[in-house]
């Protein structure tokens, strides 16, 4: 587990969008959208599977 980082000088270069509120907001919105989409897809699948089981 090696790393090419040998010093913490100019570390901001590794986090290119950490000082941009717009980019951070966009990233957070994207993550939230993925989570909501996954939950909605799982709920839809479970409802369909349960309806098949009831019949």
Helix % is: 55-70%
**Amino- and carboxy-terminal Cα gap:** 54 Å
Low-confidence stretches: none
Number of strands: 0
Mean residue pLDDT: 84
H and E order: H
Strand content: under 5%
Structural class: mainly alpha
* Shape summary: elongated
- Count the DSSP helices: 1
Largest sheet properties: none
Rounded radius of gyration (Å): 21 Å
Give the gist of this structure:
By secondary structure, this protein is mostly helical. 62% of the residues lie in helices and 0% in strands.
Describe the protein in words.
The protein has 55 residues and is mostly helical. The chain is built from one helix and no strands. It is elongated. The relative contact order is 0.07. The model has no long low-confidence stretch (mean pLDDT 84).
Give the tags:
55 residues, mainly alpha
Give the SSE map.
Elements lengths: L20 H34 L1
